[in-house]
Amino acid sequence: MFLDSVVFLILIHGHYCFVVQDLKDHFLPENEFKRKIPETPTHALREIFPKTSLELFKKAYFVESTTFSGSTYLLSKDSLFFYPSFGQAMCGLVGGYLVEVNTIQELNFIKHFLFEKASRFGIVMAGGTDEDHEGLWVNRHSLTKVDSLWDAGQPDDFQGAQDCQVFYKPYNWNLDDNSCVFNSGEVAFLCEVKD
Ligand SMILES: [Ca+2]
Ligand SMILES: [Ca+2]
Fold it and tell me: Which of the pair, 40 or 103, is modelled with greater confidence?
């Protein structure tokens, strides 16, 4: 029987974590990611992952914001972004999800955090996507409609190839639609964790 998924043991800076990756996704070419990006099951891992290890994991891989309206935000460190379902899995391990921006106040809080902490990045991945239906923007975690807090002129689906919601530094960290898959260390992702 062919295995569908594998559990990776990641060891960085003396800390370790487990991440389940779907083998089918792992070996799909880039254009295949656009068609099918399933969520990775993390709830089971959270149950077997000791709380103290989770705290170490959080400190090792993320920079944490202060609290805003019952949420804290975790910015991935270093070159940790590969594609959205990986980010979503990492967010799931710390009890959150790729950020869903619902109000202008929340957007402003996040932008302030990114101006302070994300200077080494050019793009920070958020939770909205229109991969399933072009122009129909949905939050990956809650499956709710993405609130229209985009930068002026966005989303523009530039060159027909922008299906993921990001914070974009050239737009002063306002929201843009951009690519979903990057091979660049200048891309991070942002988790939202509810109290
Ligand atoms: Ca699009
Ligand atoms: Ca765009």
Answer: 103
Q: 29 alpha carbon to ligand 1 midpoint, in Å?
A: 19
pLDDT tens string 23-49 = 344 434 444 444 444 454 555 666 666
How close is the Cα of 48 to the center of ligand 2, in Å? 39
The ligand with the least distance to the CA atom of 177 is: 2
Question: Which ligand gives the minimal distance to the CA of 130?
Answer: 1
Helix H, strand E, coil C: the string for the chain is CCCCEEEEEEEECCEEEEEEEEHHHHCCCHHHHHHCCCCCCCHHHHHHCCHHHHHHHHHHHEEECCCECCEEEEEECCCCCCCHHHHHHHHHHCCCEECCCCCHHHHHHHHHHHHHHCCCCCEEEEEEECCCCCCCCEECCCCCECCCCECCCCCCCHHHCCCEEEEEHHHCCEEEEECCCCCCCCEEEEEEEEC
Tell how far the Cα of 102 is from the centroid of ligand 1, in angstroms.
19
Q: Which ligand is nearest to the CA of 162?
A: 1
Please say whether the beta carbons of 88 and 140 come within 8 A. yes
Which one of the ligands is nearest to 168 CA? 2
